[in-house]
Amino acid sequence: MPHQNHMITTSIPGRIDDRDWSALTKGEQIRMIEADGYMIVPDILSSEYINILKTESDTLETVGRDYSPYQRSCRDAHLENDTLAELIAYRPTVDYLEDILGDQLIFISYGYDRSEPGSPGISLHTDGQPYGSTIFGYEGSAPVTIRVLYYLDDLTLDVSPFRVIPKSHLSIHADANPYKRYESHPEQVVVPCKAGSALFLNHKVFHGTLPNTGNR
Fold first, then answer.
1. With contact defined as beta carbons under 8 Å apart, do 78 and 84 qualify?
2. Model-level pTM?
3. pLDDT by residue (tens digit) across 82-111?
4. In sequence order, which residues have a C-beta less than 8 Å from that of residue 3 and are 6 or more positions away?
């Protein structure tokens, strides 16, 4: 009897944005976050700095989210560790934010997140909820916010890749109500990137992650 190969294949829901982000000019990057609501700056953290941040973040006490024990976080991580707190004023990032927003920047929040194998992913949502929210509080009511996500490990298609609905922050349709949540969307884009990258995110754009189906 011939040997049979059994194989399970999975598909990634949505277009994959694996462009060469280093090829974008500063103007193209700023246009990207203004028009599409997100952008990636690769290699903003050196490998040496990544190792320092990973060593320090390993000391944090994390708790599982209410929807999964495999999605873990530590809020106000800057209050727990002075080395991690220094990242708030990281000059390369501040330079980008000043180019995007101007030089009167206000720091709002700092958190550490880890997606372990088995994490179900995060539904598509916004971080801006202007009408009062018990989830985000005063922070969510800010009219303009840029979140910066630093990735200390490679963000691959099987390990909780970021996903986003480009331009959704510009929509005034009822479906773009900031309190809505979506498990998926036909226009979602999946964004892998390398460790050391920073993702700049307009807090009004719908975004989330896919599950961690990998082994790390």
1. yes
2. 0.90
3. 999 999 999 999 999 999 999 999 999 999
4. none
